[in-house]
Each structure stands twice: as structure tokens, then as C-alpha cells.
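R.M. (postdoc): so does anyone remember the format we settled on? I'll just put the C-alpha cells first.
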């Protein structure tokens, strides 16, 4: 038997220590990586995020059915951002204005522009979208000019400054026609392409909920790259923080390693 994210979600929902133990070992490193990107200079953030995940009232696992890891991490990312203090932007811009301004861009260009709200540089964004960093830079300059034409007050960092608020609005704006996680995963894994799927592409091209969702999925792929689980010793303080009953050895290691 292989213990995966599916089993973890099931066990955490049932409040079994093996689920929570696996969560700490496997996902504290992921939360750390996300915090390093989004929450630099907020030393209490990791504990807050973990406690928020564990809290039975606002548990991450409450609203989740057993799901593929990448979907889980995309949701975990939302949980991390929800726990971070985000000061209001000096110049505010709403999603409607962004959608109106960026309407002339193609789907891929919109993604390149949107990932700027997630604070990734062109050099970081290029590999996520499999395009050159210079292409991302060019698209973002064009997006900035398009925005400039729609607002009274402007600065180049408008998308980044308003990133958290825009992300929240987009995440809440899903419709019945929105693409399923499975479709996004099929596209990311190359089981499916946009080619010949005009209806899907047309929807995503005009739906900022789907653009945000897709961008968060490509972010997850990058975030999970090279992440190593915690050692038993490293995980101990977090298990203690969450009040997880001690197990002699993590049982998935027992299952994997025999003795
Ligand atoms: Zn949609």
C-alpha cells in the first residue's frame, strides 16, 4: 500500500494521527516555500497557517474531498495567503477593470500578466508557462500600458500591489462553465492540449476565475519541485504544536521499509 495525499485527506478528515503526521512531514516544507515567497518577514506565519489548517472550525480538510496532490496544494496555497496580512494597495484596482483592460490579450498572454499578481518575476514565470522570460516581460509591459489606458492613477506595479485582493476576487468568481481540476491536470500533464478545444479555450480566455485557477496550478507544479519531506526530528515540534499523538515511527515508513 502506498500512502498518498488521498489517504492523508481521508485520515485528517477522520482526525487520525497518521493523516496529520503525514501532513506535517510532507507539507510543512511546502508551506515554508510559499511563505518564503509571499510572507517574508512574518515569522509567526508558519505556526498560524498550521493551526488554521488544524482548527476544526476552519479546517482545510473539511471542505475537501480526497483529491490529487496538486489540487490539494493549490488549496493549501489559498490557506497560506489567507493567513498573511496584506496591506491595501496605495492605488486600488478591481478585477473588472483588469478584465476590461487586458481583454485584447491572448489566453497565454493573460496568464503571463496574471502571474505578476502572484509576485513571480519574468525569469520565474517563463518556465511555468514554457515561454522565454523576455516574452513574459514584453507581455507584461503591454499589459501595463493597457491598464494605464483604463485608470486615472497608475503605476507599473499595479497588478502586483493588488495581487492578493485580485486573487481573492478571481477565486470567488467561479461559474458553472468553469473547467474542472481534472481538465487542468490533463492539460498540465500533456494528456490534453488546447488545440481543437475552442469552447474550452474561449471560456478560459474570458474567465479570470479559470485563468487564476490555471496559474495557481502551474505555480503548484513549480512549488512542489525539489521539496523534501521533514525528518522525524524536524517534524516533532510541529506535531507538538498541533497536538498530534506520537507514533513510534511514521507508519508509511513502516509500510514502505518493512521492519
Ligand atoms: Zn471559468
Amino acid at each position: 500500500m502506498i500512502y498518498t495525499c488521498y489517504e492523508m485527506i481521508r485520515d485528517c478528515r477522520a482526525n487520525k494521527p497518521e493523516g496529520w503526521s503525514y501532513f506535517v512531514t510532507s507539507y510543512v516544507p511546502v508551506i515554508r516555500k510559499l511563505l518564503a515567497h509571499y510572507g517574508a518577514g512574518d515569522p509567526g506565519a508558519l505556526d498560524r497557517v498550521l493551526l488554521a489548517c488544524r482548527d476544526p472550525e476552519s479546517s482545510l480538510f473539511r471542505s475537501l474531498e480526497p483529491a490529487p496532490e496538486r489540487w490539494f496544494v493549490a488549496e493549501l496555497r489559498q490557506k497560506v495567503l489567507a493567513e498573511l496580512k496584506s496591506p491595501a494597495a496605495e492605488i486600488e484596482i478591481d478585477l473588472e477593470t483588469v478584465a476590461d483592460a487586458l481583454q485584447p490579450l491572448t489566453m497565454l498572454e493573460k496568464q503571463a500578466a496574471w502571474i505578476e499578481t502572484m509576485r513571480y518575476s519574468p525569469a520565474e514565470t517563463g518556465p511555468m508557462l514554457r515561454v522565454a522570460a523576455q516574452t513574459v516581460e514584453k507581455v507584461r509591459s503591454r499589459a501595463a500600458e493597457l491598464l494605464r489606458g483604463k485608470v486615472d492613477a497608475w503605476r507599473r506595479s499595479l497588478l502586483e500591489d493588488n495581487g492578493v485582493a485580485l486573487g481573492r476576487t478571481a477565486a470567488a468568481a467561479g461559474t458553472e462553465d468553469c473547467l474542472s481540476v481534472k481538465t487542468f491536470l490533463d492539460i498540465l500533464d500533456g494528456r490534453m492540449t488546447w488545440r481543437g478545444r475552442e469552447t474550452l479555450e474561449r471560456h478560459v480566455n474570458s474567465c479570470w476565475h479559470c485563468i487564476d485557477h490555471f496559474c495557481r496550478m502551474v505555480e503548484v507544479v513549480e512549488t512542489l519541485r525539489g521539496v523534501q519531506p521533514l525528518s522525524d526530528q524536524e517534524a516533532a515540534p510541529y506535531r507538538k504544536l498541533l497536538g498530534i499523538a506520537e507514533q513510534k515511527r511514521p507508519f508509511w515508513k513502516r509500510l514502505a521499509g518493512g521492519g
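R.M.: ...and that's the designed sequence above, right after the C-alpha cells. Also worth knowing: The mean pLDDT is 90. The longest helix spans residues 17-38.
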